[in-house]
Amino acid sequence: MKAHITFISAGAGSGKTHRLTDLLHDELTAGNIRPSGVIATTFTKKAAAELRERVRGHLLNQGDFGLANAMGQARIGTVNSVCGQLIARFAFEAGMSTDQQVLEEVQSKALLGHAIDTVLDSPAMQELLSLVRRLGLEPDPRDKYKDHWQSDLKKLVDQIRSNDIPAAQVPCFASANADDLLSYFPKPSKQDLSADLLKAIHAALPTIEATAQSGGKKNTNAYLALIKGFARGLERQTASWGEWVKVAEESPEASFRLTIEPIADLAGRAGEHAGLHNDLRRYLELMFNLAAKALDSYQALKQELGVLDFADQEHQLLGLLDHPEVAAVLDDELDLLMVDEFQDTSPIQLALFLKLASFAKKVYWVGDIKQAIYGFRGSDTELMQAILKALPDMGAVKEVLPSSWRSRPELVKAVNAVFTHAFKGTLAREEIELSPERTDPLPDPALANWILGGTKAEQEASALASGVHQLIDSGYSIYDKSSKSPRPVRFGDVAILSRSNDGVDALAAALSAQGIPVATAQAGLLATPEATLAMACLRRLNDPADTLATAEIVSLADSLEPEIWVADRLRYLAKGGKVEQWFEQAIEGHPVHPVLETIAGLRSALPLLAPREALVTVISTCSLADKVMRWTPEPDRVRVRLANLEALIALAGQYEDVCRSGQQAASISGLITWVGEIAQQKQDMLAEPAIDAVKVMTHHAAKGLEWPVVVLTDLAKDIKSRLWSVSAQSGANFDAHNPLADRYIRYWPWPFGLKKKVAIADSIALTPMAAGFKTTAIEESKRLLYVSMTRARDLLVFARSSRKLSGEWLDCVEAPWLLPGKGNGAIELPTGERIAAGHWELEPLDDQVEEKPATSEALYWFKGMGDTGLRLPLIFNPSSVEPAPCAIVEKCRIGERMPVAKGADMRVLGEAIHACIGLSFTAPHASLSDAEVSNILSGFGVSEYLSANSVLQQIRVFHEWLSSRWPGARSYAEIPLQNILPTGQVLNGQIDLLLETDSGWVLFDHKSSQLAADHWELLASEYSAQLGAYAQGVEQASGKKVIEQWLLLPVAGGALSIERLR
Questions:
Q1: What does DSSP assign to residue 852?
Q2: pLDDT tens for residues 703-758?
Q3: pTM (2 decimals)?
Q4: Nearest to 23 by CA among 341, 366, 327, 278
Q5: For residue 1001, what are the β-bridge partners?
Q6: Which one, of 1053, 1052, 1057, lies nearest residue 1042 by Cα?
């Protein structure tokens, strides 16, 4: 090793970037290093740009313009960009072209996926799929996070590449893994367990069947179906090993205990079945072979396209550094090697840095082992810790940054107290504990516990939304870094962290439903309405026969419900319209749609348009931005939608780059297919415009970021080890100078599907090997919690479920003092110091908040050519009509006022009563039963607020009143109504009840109001216009007059006849 290595331990918020900037600046100004002799790697492009510009700024400020200009010669960037620069620098020595076409990560994932698909078409696939079914390794919709063979195959490929393992060595891992795994299983039995089990089932079946046919218990019938199906699987050799476990566990009624005992005993011996052992060996053999073939296929595809990916760059540079001429040049030129986020490097990157360190005159590795949380991405924390442990023997020294500049003192003290204990067995105290440097005083508590009420996750998310509202309304004081003074918290100051992407989506939806602006760093761009509309326009331009695109355009551009445009299409076809020309060619009563007319006009220019240009053209020419703005009056939401359109255009540009690098022709059809693949891979990232919105993301994604307020969720999650998964390990003879030597890919597939409580698993879990995996998982969970807790500058919130206040994740740091009970306004540190802490018990918000009215900060867009001013909406909704003056013709009491328990959602309750009344008219000669009403109320979830008997009694009285008042009238309930109004609008609604008499129609609309009779005039005024619109539609549709209009008030126990004043 040429130079001493300095490892800088930089805890969260300890001023790492400032230290790197000072270090680089000082070495340059002292003349110890040359700008051209600097290699500095960072985790992101943004961090690289920030480091370069900070150093350049310092140099300019002190008037050293020559060095500032020379900073462009320094190789500062991500690991892959630096690898690319060095390969280009030594391309001649490597025998390579200086013009390297390098795939971006999204592009390489798509190409690797294609390579894997290619090898999956091999003849061995049928055998593999049979094994997959028996071992229960297929994807299961009941458990989307379950490991399955396809995800495991991709993990195998990723681990092989990140550890630089030659493809020829890969198949050897199969037998080693099989031997290792099966050494924990019972030895395979020589007994034919399948045949004996089949005999035992056939022997027991007559007895069990006889009881089941004579009316046996439910569990007996279920058990009978189970063993019959299992027996068929045994006969066909398709029964899964998970089914063996299930048969061993299940049982019929107690009287059959002796009858089924042989079945349960034999099924319980699945672990010693020779077939299971053979299946596991063969499965591992096929999987490792497939991984090797996929890598060969991927390499062939890249050679055919003339491209490299990031892993190729790392592999080539690793080999290139052994070239004598390259080594001599670097030995002379490399003055400083600086590696940021050292703890997150992959094994092959670690090997690269060790080789580069042998040439550099000065070496600085900067990182924090407490923030090593990317094990699932291929980084190996155990390998990293082994290297750090070996540093003293390599002549390295350690520097610890001692201060916290990010968080207020109370938070720093709490984090110190939690993690000096949590990491005491693995790290020295000085590497954990930071000294708080912030002195700005803030009046409000730095910590808070939010207890989320509710009986399910959706309700807890709603309770969390109420907590955010309450926090903003409270005027909680945070420190503004730009103004250097306190100010009230805003939505944009808050980040909420979840353990999963699904959790992020659920929280974002709950916040949005309560009118809280949200921003998420998530995939899903192609699923947004604005992207769907833009892609539909592009598809329609590309293919005039794409009628699905037409339906999407009509539905989204005009905000039409499917019932409307489906009915219109059927009428169009009935008049002889061409299937593919709906809304593009006018026929009687069916005008051309302006968007489709515009797209048809663009089609002649189609051969001249590049894919991105075509997308930009349809977005601008069809005024999609204008249409998107009309979907909501909320400026921030409009900004997000417009930013998503820009992100879609950027994605189209990325597609053209892929085609250019692969020397392939870009086409609109290719773009449409490519973005679909990107969406499947969840790489279609939503735009993140700068708006005042709550940020919602995963705990992992929050690394490296900070906010004034951070809310932690999912704290009670269980800790899952990687025992039954794919991982990489070093052999017994670890060499710190050659960390890739003797690397081994470990893969243990779980062979029992969703059945987790299996005797073999329990016995393996007690072994030292399994304990090691569990300890590793616990330590990574501690590190993730450390990362999450150190994101907050001013307020850290623990959001906990009232159903489960704590769990494995939070408990792993052994800090129960963080979670004080109700009424305790502080937490007490182990030292005895008390820190103020809030405690809120939050309940779900009952109703969704209506869309906010447009604010004074309105957004504007250029007027499209077709705009002629104010447009009426195509759909006329009678329920949205403004109140109108009316006269009350008659009030009638019908039955008694129905008692409704407190807390009922009157909208849902009204729908339930409405359904009961509608059902009562489906069979006029059959009375509604109590059971039917009870079933409806239960279905709507309101049975605890309203008795079925009171509803039934009210409906009976209503029918008697109708019969006495309009004898012989024919009744029609729940009648859909659609009519074209003189304005051209479409009236669309549903009439609750119509009575047909000889004189005309009697129209009823049901309302669930609880108002007393002396306030019914208010209802008359509110709903008279709606009734009038319905009456007009009925008269136009039927040619028969509406003679009376009634409001039925079943809850209030009455009815109201009204007449609109002209």
A1: P
A2: 989 999 999 999 999 999 989 999 988 877 777 788 888 889 999 999 999 888 88
A3: 0.74
A4: 366
A5: 996, 1042
A6: 1057
